[in-house]
């Protein structure tokens, strides 16, 4: 099975010995890690925005340390640091609450790393969006006797969404691209899959370009989806 | 509510991993023919994979292959992400400070591949001013630093990258395991660009005493099981049978003490 | 902004931070530091040089990229737009590898390339690092510049035109300065992002701060100490950039 004699179509074929399937697998992993990290990151961001806006002074300062620190250190360094530290820390916590040690695979570590990075940026995006909501809306909800959790779910969340969407769409694109950095710790997502294919077949340009096209497609499609979401969200606003 | 959700999510993600009692074997992610090369279906193939599987079978271990970047293997081992390393890891005293090793399961001298048309001798003087590619964190990097101080060293994350740059003409030579060099020189790229420059002089301190499985310090039980299994596959012919599929000679080297 | 007094909880936090730092200094192993001092400084130098030069070059490239998208001939505008989309839509790591290994794999098949005057540069890794980081900065900043050019009030440009100014003079004297003025506040963030992108060059055998610490990790087999120190170094660099911008802003507002 000499890769040299294969045509481009055969090299990119989905079934082995073609590497197309491996690339798509990598893409799938990339999207899963990006999606998981993005989602968890949004949760962190919401918690961060809430406590930065209405938390106590200590909580506010701690969140400020987290967001500043994460945003100033290269993602690659964070990934290396967290990739080793997160499983140890998690295991420490789990052992102390009596669950015992578990083995944490690269997939979960990857998601947590992306989430921690995303969380810092999401905190800022959401804080800005919440602050842009007219104070009166939230006060009105409280005066109607809504609990703060309900107010958040019913009023704050929908009201901040249009303002937050551009930032959130940007964050999603960053998440998909940040997963590429996991290649450096040996996680076989799209970029590393492309590199492996290139190394095995010696068709470097072909496979790196193919991965580039896949990333580009993801970003173009995501852009279109977020644009549509934005249009819907703002249309809802102007009508009422 | 968020915290609950987070807790559910994390436990959901962790629990399936915690159940099975498997031995995690760390391989490097990059192609390292003919020892371990990932194929398009995501499997790793090669001599070392076959031997490791045979050793696992003989030791009655259920082994699961985990791939990590080469320079992350030892941290992954000490950080309990894998249970032993099977990545053509040479047994050196320097590494023994951090991890322990099984007995060796193969041995290869280090050799130099050079670009065609570049005159160079495998001596400190002959390599002075030459650009020499080595894999970072490898014994060859340590050797080159100790013995070819006047060569310009370029460190690559994988040996495959170094070969690629030798092929591209960016390197004058690369220093690696002889078996790897021979494999590369036999490939189409290797035939086109490069030729063998010969082995380097012995230096057990940097080049080590053969290649063994890397095991966590304090995991003596696993080490013993692996040692017995290596001896078993050597004796019952499995080792020779597997080796014959990839090489036309015994790569075990001198049987040591 | 200015903390004239420290509230008690902050004093507490600072105390906790000091305790943690002291513990880290005492408990962890730092004996390797003197041995690698030179190497770290060299790596730091490459990191800073790469960040500064690629930001400047990238910014210079971003100006025409933004301009043609606002007021250029269709094909040029289309090209610039495509370039920005391409850069922003793919990971930088992939771009770095594509430039270095992708192009490198072509060299043996290009007969004249080894005799050309470019060859001494093509065998080094820094030109690829420089090119990839510059193009990346240009791609992101080009999009920002487009917005900045488009955002300059039309009235100002029309006023200048009605005074009979040459279009190039308008660009040089009014349009460009006003656009650059608009992007200045965002440059701080962009520079920090550029700083954070530099470690990727370590994957193509360039020896920057990240690569030096990678070697330290491999030679000492320590996981956390080198990584923490490296994170601290990048944190300080990012802080310095922010401080420099704050100082510049203050100087600028005083001058006005």
Structure write-up:
The complex is a heterotrimer of chains A (240), B (257) and C (256). Chain A is mainly alpha-helical and 240 residues long. Chain A has helices spanning 8-11, 20-54, 57-72, 75-96, 106-131, 135-143, 148-178, 190-201, 204-239. Chain A is globular and about 75 Å long. The N and C termini of chain A lie far apart (65 Å). Chain B has 2 domains: 21-107 and 209-246, Periplasmic binding protein-like II (D-Maltodextrin-Binding Protein, domain 2, 3-Layer(aba) Sandwich), CATH 3.40.190; 110-207, 3-Layer(aba) Sandwich (D-Maltodextrin-Binding Protein, domain 2), CATH 3.40.190. Chain B contains 11 helices and 12 strands. In chain B, the strands form 3 sheets. In chain B, strands 4-1-5-12-6 form a 5-stranded mixed β-sheet. In chain B, α5 links the parallel β8 (131-135) and β9. In chain B, α2 crosses α10 (220-235). The longest helix of chain B is centred in the first third of the chain and has 18 residues, at 2-19. In chain B, 49% of the residues are buried. In chain C, α3 (74-89) packs across α6 (126-151), α4 crosses α6 and α7 runs antiparallel to α8 (167-197). The two termini of chain C are 21 Å apart. At the A-C interface, α3, α4, α7, α8 and α9 of A face α1, α3, α4, α8 and α10 of C.
Layout: helices, strands, pairs:
The complex is a heterotrimer of chains A (240), B (257) and C (256).
Chain A: H1 8-11, H2 20-54, H3 57-72, H4 75-96, H5 106-131, H6 135-143, H7 148-178, H8 190-201, H9 204-239
Chain B: H1 2-19, E1 23-28, E2 37-38, E3 44-45, H2 47-58, E4 63-68, H3 73-78, E5 84-85, H4 93-96, E6 100-106, E7 110-115, E8 131-135, H5 139-147, E9 152-156, H6 159-168, E10 173-177, H7 178-186, H8 188-193, E11 194-199, H9 204-207, E12 211-215, H10 220-235, H11 238-246
Parallel strand pairs in B: 1-4, 1-5, 8-9, 8-10
Antiparallel strand pairs in B: 2-3, 5-12, 6-12, 7-10, 7-11
Helix pairs in contact in B: 2-10, 2-11
Chain C: H1 8-27, H2 33-71, H3 74-89, H4 92-104, H5 119-122, H6 126-151, H7 154-162, H8 167-197, H9 209-220, H10 224-255
Helix pairs in contact in C: 2-3, 2-6, 2-8, 2-9, 3-6, 4-6, 6-8, 7-8, 8-10
């Amino acid at each position: 099975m000499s890769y040299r004699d294969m045509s481009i179509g055969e090299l990119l074929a989905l079934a082995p010995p073609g590497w197309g399937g491996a690339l798509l697998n990598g893409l799938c992993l990339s999207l899963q890690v990006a999606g998981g990290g993005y989602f968890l990151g949004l949760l962190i961001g919401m918690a961060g925005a809430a406590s930065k806006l209405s938390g106590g002074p200590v909580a506010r300062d701690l969140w400020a340390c987290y967001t500043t620190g994460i945003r100033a250190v290269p993602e690659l360094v964070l990934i290396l640091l967290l990739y080793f530290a997160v499983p140890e820390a998690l295991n420490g916590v789990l052992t102390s609450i009596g669950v015992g040690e578990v083995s944490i695979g690269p997939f979960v570590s990857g998601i947590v790393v992306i989430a921690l990075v995303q969380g810092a940026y999401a905190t800022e995006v959401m804080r800005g969006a919440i602050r842009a909501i007219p104070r009166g809306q939230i006060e009105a909800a409280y005066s109607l006797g809504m609990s703060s959790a309900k107010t958040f779910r019913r009023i704050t969340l929908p009201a901040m969404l249009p303002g937050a969407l551009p930032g959130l769409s940007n964050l999603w694109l960053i998440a998909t691209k940040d997963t590429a950095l996991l290649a450096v710790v040996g996680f076989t997502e799209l970029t590393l899959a492309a590199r492996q294919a290139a190394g095995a077949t010696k068709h470097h340009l072909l496979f790196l370009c193919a991965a580039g096209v896949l990333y580009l497609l993801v970003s173009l499609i995501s852009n279109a989806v977020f644009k549509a979401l934005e249009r819907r969200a703002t249309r809802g606003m102007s009508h009422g | 509510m968020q915290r609950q959700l987070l807790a559910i999510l994390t436990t959901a993600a962790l629990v399936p991993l915690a159940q099975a009692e498997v031995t995690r074997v760390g391989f490097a992610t990059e192609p390292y023919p003919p020892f371990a090369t990932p194929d398009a279906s995501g499997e790793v193939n090669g001599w070392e994979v076959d031997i490791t599987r045979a050793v696992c079978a003989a030791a009655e271990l259920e082994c699961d292959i985990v791939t990590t970047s080469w320079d992350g293997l030892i941290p992954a081992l000490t950080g309990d992400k894998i249970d032993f390393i099977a990545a053509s890891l040479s047994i050196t005293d320097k590494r023994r400070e951090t991890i322990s090793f099984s007995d060796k399961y193969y041995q290869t001298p280090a050799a130099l591949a050079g670009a065609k048309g570049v005159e160079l001798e495998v001596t400190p003087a002959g390599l002075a001013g030459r650009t020499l590619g080595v894999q970072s964190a490898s014994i060859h990097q340590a050797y080159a630093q100790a013995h070819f101080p006047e060569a310009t060293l370029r460190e690559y994350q994988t040996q495959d990258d170094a070969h690629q740059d030798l092929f591209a003409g960016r390197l004058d030579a690369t220093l690696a395991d002889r078996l790897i060099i021979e494999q590369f020189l036999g490939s189409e790229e290797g035939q086109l660009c490069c030729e063998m420059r010969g082995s380097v002089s012995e230096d057990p301190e940097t080049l080590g005493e053969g290649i063994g499985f890397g095991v966590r310090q304090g995991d003596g039980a696993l080490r013993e099981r692996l040692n017995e299994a290596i001896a078993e596959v050597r004796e019952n012919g499995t080792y020779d049978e597997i080796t014959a599929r990839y090489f036309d000679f015994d790569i075990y080297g001198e049987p040591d003490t | 902004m200015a903390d004239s007094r420290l509230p008690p909880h902050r004093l507490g936090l600072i105390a906790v931070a000091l305790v943690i730092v002291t513990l880290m200094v005492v408990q962890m192993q730092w004996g390797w530091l003197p041995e690698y001092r030179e190497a770290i400084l060299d790596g730091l130098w490459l990191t800073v040089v790469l960040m500064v030069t690629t930001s400047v070059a990238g910014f210079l490239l971003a100006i025409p990229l933004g301009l043609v998208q606002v007021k250029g001939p269709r094909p040029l505008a289309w090209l610039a737009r495509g370039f920005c989309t391409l850069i922003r839509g793919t990971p930088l790591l992939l771009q770095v590898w594509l430039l270095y290994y992708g192009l490198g794999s072509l060299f043996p098949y290009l007969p004249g390339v080894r005799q050309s005057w470019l060859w001494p540069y093509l065998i080094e890794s820094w030109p690829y690092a420089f090119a990839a980081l510059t193009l990346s900065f240009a791609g992101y900043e080009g999009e920002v510049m487009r917005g900045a050019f488009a955002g300059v009030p039309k009235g100002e440009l029309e006023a200048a035109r009605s005074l009979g100014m040459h279009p190039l003079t308008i660009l040089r004297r009014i349009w460009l300065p006003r656009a650059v003025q608009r992007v200045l506040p965002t440059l701080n963030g962009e520079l920090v992002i550029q700083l954070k992108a530099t470690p990727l060059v370590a994957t193509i055998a360039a020896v920057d701060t990240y690569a030096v610490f990678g070697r330290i990790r491999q030679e000492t087999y320590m996981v956390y100490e080198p990584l923490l120190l490296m994170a601290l170094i990048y944190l300080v660099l990012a802080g310095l950039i922010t401080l420099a911008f704050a100082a510049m802003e203050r100087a600028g507002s005083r001058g006005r």
